[in-house]
Amino acid sequence: MKKLTLALAMALAMTGLAQAKTVKVTLTAKEVDLPIDNKGTMYRAWTFDGQIPGTVVRVTEGDTVEFTLVNDKSSKNSHSVDFHAARTDLVKDFESIKPGETKTYTFNATHPGTFFYHCGSDPMIQHIARGMFGVIIVDPKDGNALPKADREYVLVQSELYPNPDNQNDMMANKWSNVMFNGGVFKYDPVHDPAATRILQAKPGERVRIHFVNAGVNEFSSFHPIAGIWDRVYPGGNPKNVMHGLQSYTVGPGDGAAFDIISPVEGANALVSHVMRQALTGAIAVLQFTKDADPKAGKGDNILVK
Ligand SMILES: [Cu+2]
C-alpha cells in the first residue's frame, strides 16, 4: 500500500499535479483601531486577524479547507465568513456567531482562482466597508496551468467611509477615499510623501497581481500606468485568459489575476482608472529595478504590510 502511495505521489509529481490535502485555516474577527493612511489617522475597523485586508488564505485546487472562525471575546458584534471559493449551504456555514463563539465548517476548493472572502453579517455593507474582507487564492492543481510568476502581490480595493457607524453614508455611496490594502495612497510616495512602501520587481520578471475588489459599491478599472497587462485571468482561473489588455474591470465582490512584465527599469503605477478613485488613494507604485529586494513579492511578502 505504501509503495502504491509512493508510486502515485511520484506519478503526480511528474505530471505537475498537486495531491489534495486538508488545510486548517483560522480567522479571528476583531474590532480594532487601525491607521487608514500614511499619517496614522486611526479608524474604528472591524477586521479578520486585526488587519485590513485579513490574512491571505492560500490553498490548492482540490484541497479540503477546514475553516474555523473565532469571534474574539472583545467584539461587540456578531460576525461570519463567506468564502467565494466555497460551494456550500449559506444558512448552515455562513451564519453569524456571537462574541466569544467559534464555528468550524469544511469546504472543497474545487475551482482555482483569486477569490474574495468577507463577513456577511447584517448589515453586510457595514461589516465589509469597515474592513472585514480578504483574499483566498486557490492555486491550480496543475502547477503548469499558469506561467510561473517571479513575484506576486495581493491588492484589495475598497472604499473608505469616514464615519464607520453611519450605514446611511455607505448606502448613499458617500465615500471619501478609495484604498488599496486598507490604506489611502499606501504604496504611493508620489501623491503622499508620507508613504514608505512600494511594490517592486526586476525588469523582465513576470509579476502577478492577485486583485480583489471589496467594494462595497464601486467598480474598479484596474490599469498599469506606463505598462500593459501581459495577461489577465478573470476570476484568477487559468482557463480564462486574455492578452495585452490596458485595463480590466473588476466589480465589487470579484477578483482577477493580472500578469505584468516590464522590459525596462522605471516605475509603473497600478491604479483604478476611475479617476475619482485613483486621485483619492487607489494608486500603488510598482518599481522595476535591477536592485529589487529578492524577498519582495515572495512567500508571506505577497501582502505588503
Ligand atoms: Cu462582521
Task: Characterise this structure.
The chain is mainly beta and 305 residues long. It folds into two domains: 20-139, Cupredoxins -  blue copper proteins (Immunoglobulin-like, Sandwich), CATH 2.60.40.420; 151-302, Cupredoxins -  blue copper proteins (Immunoglobulin-like). It has five helices and 19 strands. Strands 10-9-12-17-14-15 form a six-stranded mixed sheet. A hairpin with a 6-residue loop joins β1 and β2 (42-48). The longest helix is centred in the first third of the chain and has 14 residues, at 2-15. It is globular and about 50 Å long. It starts with a helix and ends in a 17-residue tail after the last strand. Bound molecules: copper (II) ion. Copper (II) ion is lined by residues 29, 46, 79, 119, 121, 127, 132.
Keywords:
305 residues, mainly beta, Immunoglobulin-like, 2 domains, six-stranded mixed β-sheet, five-stranded mixed β-sheet, 5 helices, 19 strands, globular, binds copper (II) ion, Cu-oxidase-like_N, copper ion binding, copper, periplasm, Copper-containing nitrite reductase
- CATH class call of the largest domain: Mainly Beta
Summarize model confidence as the mean pLDDT: 96
Biggest sheet architecture: 6 strands, mixed
Unreliable spans are none
Overall structural class, as computed from helix and strand content, comes to: mainly beta
Tally of DSSP β-strands: 19
Helix content: 10-25%
CATH superfamily caption of the largest domain = Cupredoxins -  blue copper proteins
Q: How is the largest sheet built, in terms of strand order?
A: 10-9-12-17-14-15
